[in-house]
Amino acid sequence: MNQRGWSLIEALAAIVVIGIGVSLFVKVQGMTSRNSATNSKILMAGKMIEKHLEDTRISISMDTVANWPPKSKTIAATPPDNIKVVSTVGVAHSPKDGAVVANVVRMDIVASWTNPSDTLKVTTYVSKRF
User: Fold this and answer.
1) Predicted model pTM
2) d(CA 20, CA 42)
3) Domain coordinates of the chain in residue numbers?
4) Phi-psi region of 119 (alpha: psi -120 to 50; beta: other; left: phi over 0)
5) Exposed/middle/buried for residue 6 (C-beta within 10 Å: 0-12, 13-18, 19+)
6) 73 within 8 A of 49, measured Cβ to Cβ
7) Span 74-88, pLDDT tens digits
């Protein structure tokens, strides 16, 4: 006599295989969501650093006497992104001989969020004449 339908073992095996597939799918979705949020923060932090640097350069070009050298600055974190930007202005040294370069400063700009380990750092040089 031919049997039709599934046996109990076949049904259990199918349920296990489907369960593993669904759990892996949910895990991948969660990882994708976390990575997307991190990438969004990095992009936003980069834009904030770029805007701060642009504002600094515009300020210098408008009045090179009053606005030179630029000052170190902290921009407090604000919702919704809660990204804090800290720029530190220092002396620029020549890579050739280590001498101080006149009318140029080194700016280290750090954007941080969530906890101190989540940061984006940019080092650039700003000139009085550009």
Assistant:
1) 0.74
2) 33
3) 8-127
4) beta
5) exposed
6) no
7) 999 988 889 999 999
